[in-house]
Amino acid sequence: KGAYWDAEIKLAQELGVERFPVFTRKVNTDVSYMACAQMLLDRRDRIYPQFATHNAHTCAAVIAMAGNDKDSFEFQRLHGMGESLHHIVKQSEGTRCRIYAPVGAHRDLLAYLVRRLLENGANSSFVNQVVDSSIPPSEIARDPVAEMQRLGDAIANPSITLPGQLFAPERKNSRGFRVNEPASILP
Question: What is the pTM of this model?
Answer without folding.
Answer: 0.76
